[in-house]
User: What shape does this take?
Amino acid sequence: MSKKTLPIVTVTLDKIVGGGQSLGTLEGGRKIFVWGGLPGETVNVQMTKKKSNLAEGTVVEVDMPSSERIPARDEDSFLSTSPWQIMTFEAEQHYKAALIEEAFELHDIVLDDTITVYTDEKQYEYRNKIEFSWYWDKESDQLDLSFFRRGTHGKIPVEGTSLAHPGINRAAQAMRDLLRTKPDLRAYMLKTLLVRCDAAGNVALQLYVKEQSFIQLTGPELEGLHENGNIIGFELIFSNPKSPASVITERLQAWGTTNLTDTILDVPFTYAVEGFFQINLPVYEQALRDMQQWVSDKPVVDLYSGVGTIGLTIGGENVTMVEINEHAVREMKRNITALEREKTIQAILAPSEQALEYITSDRTIIVDPPRAGLHEDVTTKLLEAAPKRIIYLSCNPVTQARDVARLSEKYGIRAHQGYNFFPRTPHIEHLVVLDLKR
Assistant: This one.
């Protein structure tokens, strides 16, 4: 049975909500969450999901545009990667500050001072990592790079994305062009292409394939990638086709330099292409500088620490870093050794909620949790141990506000600052410094 096509509806949009969509109300009172529209606009929306009390959809035509609307740079694929390309950058900064304020107001927390969102003003070409899918164009009978259409399983063929460092797009196109020369290759044999570059523009990439018998690239082909895409490292990786994610099941081939190196606040970090590392280094460095002024000479515990970019740069002389991902901890330990910091920095492989013994009253606690926020056991332990200061960097102000509300039993907000790590997208980073109440 074919899936029923949902209707196109006309709606006037009211406001932007935390997920990044604009919200409108249909006749009958059903709320609709819309991608591709802005507050105040009247738009025609192709519904993609319909439930009893809400619906979702994508703008197909704008009847009355907002004064904040601008043409999207990636006209065909912006909804896949950066749905806020359609608004002025001033509007984006305004909405991100407003969403931070709204998230805290939902928990009856009023943030003192004006909410500001730091930006280095670089709106495009800031990402140092992009993951492409593959698409077979039946009309041209050739392979294309692609992204998934937002909210569907369909794909959009692309040449790249304006969010990426130009070297990433060049490298991806070089790999695509090479694979197009293989007559028996089809998109269904491939999974994804992960491309990463360092600040100097050196590119390493990983091609994830669905067959262990996939033919390895030849020496001349690899040299061609280097010449045409400035690619310094390549890995061919078999990824279990039963998993939708690009997981490493077996490394089939490696060539060149497959790890990259960058500095954060003058501290060198080496990381794998698939490893944990920050996407927008200049803005991240500003967040670290802001956090650093609140780090005293007390021992530091860095929870949800990833590869240790916080603890190793601003944590001071006595740092304990806790991370659940074994691959991230492996890279963390490698960087600790390279910095000759084994005697002063401890790396713990564990979920933060299972490393509660490190949360003590005589330490400064730094947390940078995933979007779900702090585990309830971590919050409980913080209230019990009552360290003097908690420095909380969040990628989701909604769950951060929830956690701060729980901690307000003993803590007050000393400082806060927003960051635009991901321009032209709805994603927001927010820093809150909490001090123990007297």
Q: What stands out?
A: The chain has nine helices and 22 strands. The CA atoms of residues 120 and 282 lie 8 Å apart. The mean pLDDT is 95. The radius of gyration is 23 Å.
